[in-house]
Known about the structure:
With 330 residues, the protein is of the alpha+beta class. The protein has helices at 20-39, 53-59, 64-67, 91-101, 140-156, 170-178, 184-196, 202-205, 210-220, 227-236, 242-260, 301-304, 319-326, and strands at residues 43-44, 50-52, 72-76, 81-86, 106-115, 125-134, 163-169, 265-267, 281-287, 290-297, 312-318.
Amino acid sequence: MQIGNFDSSWRSEGMKDIDPLKMIEFRRVEEIFLSLTRSHDYQEIRTPTIEPLHLYTATRVLSPQLLHRVYSFLDWDGWSGERVVLRPDSTVPAARLFAESEQEISRLCYVQPVYRFSTDEQPRELWQCGVELFGIPAVQADVELLTILLELLQKVGVDRDRYHIDISHAGLIQLILSYTGMTLEDQRHLYEVILTGETLSREDFSINDDAVFSSLELLSQIKGESPDYVLNLQSLLKNSSSEIEQSVIELRAASKILSDSGVNFNILPGTTANFDYYTGVTFRVVIQDIECVSGGRYDLLTKSLGAQQSPASGFAVDLMKLAHISNDGG
């Protein structure tokens, strides 16, 4: 039945129905994901749709850009209220659940939407399937997550020649930026410049140490495609410390699992705009120029919630994008 002069205001902007055909695609990916994660001993969770805003501001999980995109309102009882948000991210609630459980190791997974305001035609309700791994440090956890991710892509039918994976190490560039002596705000700005690929200027950032500037210049030009590239990178970095060496070990382990799997990948200066949140290896999956998966390590997350610091890492998949792409040519 068609309705003449249909009023588009019957549906909120940025919100989309999932019709019966798309639900078939949705359920297929969801079932593959849940079956796969169960086989790796992950347990499914569901977290509240409405969360306190301070849960996200305290943990710095949201980049400044994303913080401006949350749906925020006052939960008012007539006398007082607190600022709350529609869940913009599922990792922090999962970390809270882990902290409350008092377990040492926890493997959690979820299928649920997050809500983010957008001024373009992108959906504002984003269905994600994701995993969160707590209590297992790098390198073991990074390899486990990448193994699950590669299995998922294979099982949903995305051929290797249709996608590539970008990887980086947030801790590595944070360490070198800390050597500059700049304020944290200036470090964040310099990190943004590095992500854009712009040429670094010593004068613009008042970097007097030649060794530090050389290392930053080298990092800004990173683009490798093999584990050996990481070793070459370590030999070229100036003022190499034990922390930098550990970062290189972690980055090389991640690149090796991808190389051994025959996956196309790039080693980049960064894969995420959030400077403060990630602490180790980060990655994203790009399928036919569409980013469908992002993840990484965030070892300071549980501590920011007031719990004991615990190794933490995970990834989230844009379920609708992956369902559509995997159903469109395999």
